[in-house]
Description:
heterodimer; A: mainly alpha; Arc Repressor Mutant, subunit A; three-stranded antiparallel sheet; 6 helices; 6% strand; disordered N terminus; B: alpha/beta; Rossmann fold; 7 strands
Amino acid sequence: MRHGGHRRGAAHRAVYARGQPWERGDAAQNTRHRRRGQAVKEGGHPGGTMNPGVPTGPLVRPYTMTGGRTRTSATGLDMASIVVSTREYVDGDSLEPEHAAILQLCDTPISVAELSGRLDIPITVAKVLIGDLTAKGDLLAQAPLTTTDIPEMNLLQAVLDGIRRL
Amino acid sequence: MASAGYDNGTGPGANIPVAVKILVAGGFGVGKTTLVRAVSEIAPLHTEEVMTEASMGVDDLGGVEDKATTTVALDFGRITVNKEVVLYLFGTPGQGRFWFMWDELAEGALGAVVLADTRRLDTCFPAVDFFEHRGIPFTVAVNRFDGSCAYTTEEVRAAVDISTDVPVIMADARERESGKDVLLALIGHVLRRRSPVLSG
């Protein structure tokens, strides 16, 4: 009974949600292609170009600082991967400025998403740069839990306790 | 995970905390970033994801860089659980056209909060469908914008048509205590799913 009702619910909700990628249909592909090249944002960005007088990000295409590379050599980097520098100090002269900036923020463990936000570079670009540094051994990366890692009860309990302490 | 530079649980990187993710989903303007702000120990960080052909796993951008990109804003917060565990809360772009981002966000996520606004309940349907389809545990939090809500949680449950074990709670996304209650309800739900024997 409940199961049947559940399926009906999914069907009636589907009226509002077309073209999900997990359906692997042509509709989803078409949507993606149609979207390409458009800048879409949810909400405002304080550093966005629509705010005159507010400093904007670098006026270069996102992948300029990676030399056009869009993929990282380090597989498994996720936006929630946590990285930490293996260096005692950062010699800015021997590094690309973006690499040096990342290493400076990585003296304590920090996530890829946080690096991206604090350096104002897109996550995908940050991953390429971080991949360069992990390949050289300047950074160590800890991948987040994956779907196949079943979180242990004590991890869940720790999260529960952490939230209670807020 | 034997790649160079990756922590394998021993050696100098053994003390890197592990990140766990909770997603905060829902329609545009429903209060996702507000909820993240209420419980995060840092001001929500804003970042952007760039979608390219490469992001979609179709092709390399070599030579066609000028066809570039679509950017999507992403806001997230952090809760340090202990020395070993850091919890990240990702406010996920609400609109269906941002599905491509959800795959990475959902990978390994502990669970999700679907924020709902009863004035436009249908905006939470895509998120509910997504998490049901992926088998990701979620809870529905009804954000009471004006401090009250004309509907009961059971009415919302019926309207969204979710299974009776999915928690549906009233919330005020601006209040830390309320945000904590939402997260606790979610983790409780995750724990019950793990060990159904213990569920009451």
